[in-house]
Every structure is written in C-alpha cells, then in structure tokens.
Amino acid sequence: MKENIKSNWSIADIPSQKGRSVVITGTGGIGYETALAMTRAGAEVIMAGRNSDKGAEAIKKIKKLIPAGNICFEKLDLADLASIEAFGERIRAQRKSLDILINNAAVMNPPLRKITIDGFELQMGTNYLGHFALTAQLLPLLQKGNKPRVVTLSSLAHLQGAINFDDLQSELNYKPMVSYSQSKLACLMFAFELQRRSDAAGWGISSMGAHPGISRTELIPNGAGKNSPAGIVRRLFGPILFQAAAHGAWPSLYAATANEAKGGAYYGPSRMNEMRGYPTVAKIAPQAKDAAVASKLWEVSEKLTNVKFV
C-alpha cells in the first residue's frame, strides 16, 4: 500500500485530539506511553487494565505531567469474558459515542501453558480473543464516533505465525513462542477482517494494525521471566536492540491519529528490520492476507466469546 508518511513522524506530529475520546488497553509500557501522548494531545482517555493499583499509579503519573489532562482508569481483565462484558456495559452506560479504540495490552511467552478463566490459552485468550470481544462490546459506540478508528497491536512475531484451527488453544502442543505468534497473527488478521466487514456493513470504522518493533517494556519479564533467554538478552542488550517504550508507541499513535493513516493498513518502525525507528508501512506476512482464514477465524471467535458484531 502506497502511503505518504513523513519520514521522521513522532508524537510532535500528532494533530490535536481535543474533542476525541479513546479507550486504550494496558497500563504500562506501550499502553502507558500511548495514553500519555493522547492525553497530552487533548483527548479524553480511558485507560483500561486488570490491576487497579497499577492503573491508579499510571493515572497519577500522567496527571502530574499533565494536570489538566482528561484521563481516567477503568478495570478490565481481558482474560475474563465476564469482565469484558461488564466493562462494555459500563462504558455504554457512561457515554454516547467513542472515537478511538487501541487494542494494546498483551502477555508474552509464559513458559508453562496457562489458561484464562474461560479456558482459553492465556496468550490467545488475552491478546486476541479478549480484544475481539472488547471491540464487539464497544462497536455500538464506535459506530456513533467521529471518524472512528480501531488500532489492534500485532507483532513482528506474526511473520512466523500460523492459525491452527485443530489446536487453537495449544492443548495438544504448547510452545510459548508458537502460541504467541499465533495470537499476534490473529490480531493482525482481525484488524484486516474488521476493515472488510466495516466496509461491507457501512459501520464507518477505519481498522488498522500496528506493531511496536522491539521495545523496552515489561512484556518479556512479566511473561517469559527476567531470567529466561529472552529476559537475559533484554537485560544485557536492551539499550542497543530495544527502543524506548515511548518510541514503540509511535506506530499505534500514528495509526490512531495521523490524517494520512488508512484503514486496512499495518504500521511499524522503519529501521533495523522494523525493530526500531519512525512509523512506516510494515511488512505483512502472506498468511495474514488470507481472507478465507480470517473469515473463518472471525466466526470461530464469535462462538468462543459469545459476541456478535451488530
């Protein structure tokens, strides 16, 4: 997809978001930096996460930096469909519309297979199915939004991903990175399928994928562990290989705010094989473009999460 992206786009280029509302999942790392930038740009920000203490601390930090900022925390556990439904009911009761949803939060590479409260493999359940259900819950508000956008975070790992319908929850064979890659491929396929369905149904939503490259967040320590091979690499080579979380947020911020950003596109960093740098159009794995698999995944996901996009 050809697109005229400023070669050194950064948060300084974010247009005023005054009058726009955004829900962002995740209270640390990329989620925190995204919320900070959107608050600074004047948006009304709802930061959603499962840890109320961590959420309150993030809000406190942002309010200290931006005293007049319009930001609040709402409890949301993406590994619990009941929590997602309750969140959706609260937000729909509180407001009439929503302009931006950034599906950001994730877990990565727990060494042993874990499951969500609903029995999904933790990475597939949190990274993909949780956000799938959340988007469905917020769809009525997004449809009433002003030029609404949904940004779903994928990963470089999607390039090695495959959707295994015969073992979608990794019950037969759990390998941490294989399951993570599948979840992030599913996220990107969802972003593209949401755009196709929005176009077909006239929802008016622009849906994009984005990825942060390799960034210094707590994703690896919280998942694989700080003493895992990936954790050790992060600790020893972090300053060289890993970009700051604030820079990792740029692709999703570009997708969420730039006037030039296009629905159905995928954005990531521009340098070092997309590991770091300014936002640009990112490489899409061939399997992520398979519309037939994406449509089947959507139908399976609706049944698993008991939601409908209406």
In short:
With about 300 residues, the protein is of the alpha/beta class. It is built from ten helices and ten strands. The model has no long low-confidence stretch (mean pLDDT about 95).
Q: What's the topology here?
A:
Elements: E1 21-25, H1 29-40, E2 44-49, H2 52-65, E3 70-75, H3 81-94, E4 100-103, H4 122-143, E5 149-153, H5 176-201, E6 206-210, E7 215-216, H6 219-223, H7 229-241, E8 243-244, H8 245-248, H9 250-257, E9 266-271, E10 276-281, H10 291-305
Parallel strand pairs: 1-2, 1-4, 2-3, 4-5, 5-6, 6-9, 7-8
Antiparallel strand pairs: 9-10
Helix pairs in contact: 3-4, 4-5, 4-10, 5-10
**Spatial arrangement of strands, main beta sheet:** 3-2-1-4-5-6-9-10
How many beta-strand runs?
Answer: 10
Reading the helices and strands in chain order gives EHEHEHEHEHEEHHEHHEEH
* Unreliable segments of 5+ consecutive residues: none
Structural class: alpha/beta
